[in-house]
Amino acid sequence: MTLEEMQKRLDELNTKACEIQALADLEKRDLKDDEADDLQATLDEFDKLEGQQKQRKRLEQQTNRLKNPELVVDAEPSTRQTDPATPGRRAGEPIQSQADGTVGDGQRRIGLITDRGLKDPKCGWRSFGEYAHGVIEGSRPGARPDERLLRAALTTFGSEGVGADGGFSVPPDFRDVIMEQLQGEDSLLPRTDQLTSGTNNLTVPKDETTPWQTSGGILANWIGEGAAITQSKPSLETVNLKLHKLAVLVPITDELQEDSSALSGWLSRKAPQKINFAINLAIVQGLGTGQPLGILNAAHTVSVAKTASQDTDSFVAQNVIDMYSRMYAPWRRNAAWLINQDIEPQLNSMSMPGKDITGTATSAYGQIVYLPANGLAGTPWATLYGRPVIPTQACETLGDKGDIIFAALDQYVTVQKVGGIRSETSIHLWFDQDTTAFKFIMRIAGQPWWNKKISARDGTTTYSAFVTLDERG
Questions:
Q1: Are 204 and 404 in contact (CB under 8 A)?
Q2: Is 318 contained in some domain?
């Protein structure tokens, strides 16, 4: 295990321990027996791994000292000179350090002054809870922010402590705790085509031509012996993706502020939940102004009509067939059904009618359309027509347009700003309730790659990466 892997595992163990204790603290009770055992085992593993990490670091430091003896500086100032003689100073005279960590002519001292923020992914903080407490204290009117907050901003963003978005940058290790959960099973974000940008705008080229187009874009032609090749050139467009600001407020009571462990567990659990749902909702229903453009509002999306005489607030097998057929075939392999869980009772009783030997329709020979979760080994998701079914509250209720969406989310592009999440607090929002608002800020853009529906080579049918069903009210 490398030092990086050790550090990641230590962070995981610390987060797990904090969450166990935080749950009991929030419910104002003692730890249950199984929780106490789990916590003790986690702490024991942490102590053992931390000892191994310290031993490994000592070994590396020792090796580096042997390889580079000229960089070793005594802990106490001495007459040993580690840089060339500077004007106005005699050889052998002790080096005088300045307040900014420089020596003599402005050269930085070696070994005597180090900036932990440059290498420490926690930027000097012992836990997420301690960092959050520092942000709270540093945000109070007239207070001077902790040096670690300013150092994190300098090393991560190359700017002053308070950036364009306001607040303080979240140290990489703590940011990863949140981002890992945003890439979890309940999130739609990891299913999208993810890009990153160092600015608040990203312009990218795209080609919306189809392989069967006979004009415009790149063409393929059969050429006779000695005949000239028909000229063609790419038909490229550009799309400008503007990153929108997403802010999530997490309330923190005064009691919670006093317990760094409980605060760490609370923030690392609640913040990702709120951010995750806000992004999911934007991917599905976003208006495109001040937020990502959602599937339901995109011109590329195809909406299928309900069947003749279909009951109100219903979903039937024929709807599945119709929606499946309107997904552009090459994209089906990565597609999934996004549903509101209100639709699940309709799915559980669904099958495709079959016919007996006389040709009479009967359910006795019907084909199974829906398979519940774990219906087959290794399938955590339910499947509909062989594709995963993902319940999400971002979808509308049963009967409304958007209650079920057949979506190839790899055809939906999202852009996140490099540096990820920032944070700030306000003690004024819920002042009368002794509660502080802890705010997480991130910038993200999103929209379908395609601006229009795909026309079939022959016929009038249109296809899409996103297929919905008309309202059945």
A1: no
A2: yes
Contact by Cβ (8 Å): 404, 313: no
Is residue 115, in this structure, part of any structural domain at all?
A: no
Average pLDDT over residues 454-468: 94
Q: Quick one: 166 and 34 in the same domain?
A: no
Determine whether 464 is exposed, middle or buried from the number of CB atoms within 10 Å of its CB (0-12, 13-18, 19+): buried
Segment 247-262, tens digit of pLDDT = 887 777 777 666 656 6
Same domain as 175, residue 32: no
pLDDT of residue 29: 82
Instruction: Tell whether 179 is covered by a domain.
Output: yes
CA–CA separation, 262 and 250 (whole Å): 14
Q: Return phi, psi of residue 241, to 5°.
A: -105, 110
Percent of the chain topping pLDDT 90: 32
Determine the pLDDT at residue 71. 47
Name the phi and psi angles at 108, rounded to 5: -80, 140
What CATH number is given to the structural domain containing 264?
3.90.1690
Residue 126 domain flag: no
Q: Do residues 37 and 168 share a domain?
A: no
User: How many domains does one find in the chain?
Assistant: 2
Query: Model confidence over 140-155: pLDDT tens digits?
Result: 666 666 666 655 443 3
Lowest mean pLDDT among 38-52, 134-148, 335-349: 134-148
For residue 334, which phi and psi values (nearest 5 degrees)?
Answer: -110, 10
- In the chain, the amino acid numbered 99 is A
Q: Which residue range(s) make up the domain with 38?
A: 1-44
The answer, yes or no, to whether residue 174 has pLDDT greater than 80, is no
Give the model confidence (pLDDT) of 406-421 as tens digits: 999 999 999 998 766 7
